[in-house]
Amino acid sequence: MTPAPAVTVEGSARLGQQPLFPPVSLRLGAGEWTCLLGPSGVGKSSLLRIIAGLETGIDFTGHVTTGDGAPLAGRIAYMAQSDLLFPWRSVTENVLLGAALRGTAPDRARARELIGRVGLTDHAGKRPAALSGGQRQRAALARTLMEDRPVILLDEPFSALDARNRAAMQSLAASLLAGRTVLLVTHDPAEAARLGHRILVIDEAGLREMPRPEMPPLRPVSDPATLEIQMALFAELGRGAE
Fold this sequence. Notes:
The chain has eight helices and nine strands. It is of the alpha/beta class. The termini are far apart.
């Protein structure tokens, strides 16, 4: 894997005639997890898609730059809220999907290694319908890792899981994505409190950064400092609802 760059998004966006978000400057630290929270409809996923170079349906005025000055194209992997597994392909075939789409030779040895690292060796030949929700997300994480990109964009990938599986996936992702530049869009203050090197909140007023946590991720769920960060985020998110 090439070194993970810092990434900065600067600009504003409109949806039709309506402002989506005012001028913002979102910086992702090199090799760090940045967690982005906020209410629905304020542009969290749009910012992620702008970085990914995907269609957003909005009018964005601004630019995306990297700390090393090199283009982002070819250096990003994306993991969505839905696992997006192809139902007719096995776990192994889904992990190798990128090579199939590119028409390149599949690296089956690496796929086996990653499937083992996410704990799915015994399920490698199964199709998604035979897997639990947590297992499907593990397969999606292995597919993301298979792309071996230095910048990882996560759009609420664990939100559909129960609390136990969500905590397990957070721990697994933190371990396997260490050293990469990660943007995690989430609605869950507890998730951001555990995972974020930096935690930012966006709403109609713009983007603001919360105090940087002293304890590095991955933070224990029940640690008092983690709970303090979580409560501060709840309070910050609740300001706009009052």
